[in-house]
């Protein structure tokens, strides 16, 4: 089985069930050493996300806003939004493994493990959606994560933008959501959502950490300082760090962010 060709097929698969089944088959063969790396290929430029036929895609400002989380509608909107992030993250991790060749095997090990985690996260959220009589694709979604992966094609940029910016922003946002949920009256579904988000938050720290490792690797290969991170982010996101007032200091430190980086983002000494 050819590593790159198989990942290309998985990335293009439109059915979540078939995508996940195909990945699990591939991943077991990969771990058993039965997948070969043949570098004579050119990575495709994907022009559409794999979920486009399943979900109605709208501009970010038109995605339904979270409402009263004590209602079924509010819970569906919240869980669906997080499920879409996790489903998008599956393809982001797979594309990271597919798009860049000639790297140490540990790199591919890391991003396939991330993809496996994201699949598990998505399945947990999908199960919650079914419990509240919904399914992935019921709510309009945006393409922000997919578009970011298409823009950030250079390896050092991808490692900065996807794990160290987009996923790291999730380390800031999820605790705020959890705080709101924990203030609500006790409810079985709310408790399940809280438990699921806590699992995802813990494991996302490791994903950002993996990105930090490979961002550092890219900086060393290019002979540049890690401080180039802020220049890269400003290039793609000139509006800056949107969640700087709510930084998850400990989570980001555990994921590899330095105190100097955190102080710069917070515009004050926070560690």
CATH architecture: Up-down Bundle
Overall form: globular
In total, the number of strands is 0
Whole-number count of domains = 1
Secondary structural class = mainly alpha
Q: Please give the CATH class.
A: Mainly Alpha
Q: Give the N-terminus to C-terminus distance in angstroms.
A: 48 Å
Count of helical stretches: 10
Structural commentary:
- The structure is a single chain.
- The protein is an all-alpha fold.
- It has a single domain (57-266), classed as Ferritin, core subunit, four-helix bundle (Ferritin, Up-down Bundle).
- Helices cover 65% and strands 0% of the residues.
- Helix 1 (3-12) packs antiparallel against helix 2 (16-31) and helix 6 (155-182) crosses helix 8 (228-236).
- The longest helix has 35 residues, at 188-222.
- The protein is globular.
- The chain starts with a helix and ends in a 5-residue tail after the last helix.
């Amino acid at each position: 089985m050819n590593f790159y060709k198989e990942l290309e097929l998985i990335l293009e698969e439109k059915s979540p069930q078939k995508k996940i089944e195909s990945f699990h088959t591939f991943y077991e063969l990969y771990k058993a050493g039965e997948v070969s790396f043949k570098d004579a290929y050119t990575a495709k430029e994907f022009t559409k996300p794999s979920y486009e036929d399943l979900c109605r895609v709208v501009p970010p400002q038109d995605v339904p806003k979270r409402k009263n989380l004590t209602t079924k509608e509010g819970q569906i909107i919240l869980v669906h939004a997080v499920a879409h992030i996790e489903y998008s993250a599956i393809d982001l991790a797979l594309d990271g493994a597919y798009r860049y060749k000639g790297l140490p095997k540990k790199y591919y090990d890391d991003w396939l493990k991330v993809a496996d985690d994201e699949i598990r996260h998505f399945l947990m959220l999908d199960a919650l959606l079914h419990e509240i009589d919904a399914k992935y694709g019921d709510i309009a979604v945006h393409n922000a994560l997919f578009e970011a992966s298409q823009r950030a094609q250079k390896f050092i940029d991808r490692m900065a933008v996807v794990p160290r910016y987009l996923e790291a922003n999730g380390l800031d946002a999820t605790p705020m959501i959890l705080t709101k949920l924990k203030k609500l009256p006790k409810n079985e579904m709310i408790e399940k959502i809280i438990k699921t988000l806590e699992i995802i938050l813990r494991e996302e720290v490791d994903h950002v950490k993996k990105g930090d490792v490979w961002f550092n690797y890219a900086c060393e290969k290019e002979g540049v300082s890690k401080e180039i991170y802020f220049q890269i982010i400003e290039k793609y996101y000139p509006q800056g760090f949107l969640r700087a007032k709510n930084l998850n200091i400990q989570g980001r430190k555990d994921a590899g962010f330095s105190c100097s980086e955190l102080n710069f983002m917070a515009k004050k000494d926070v560690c």
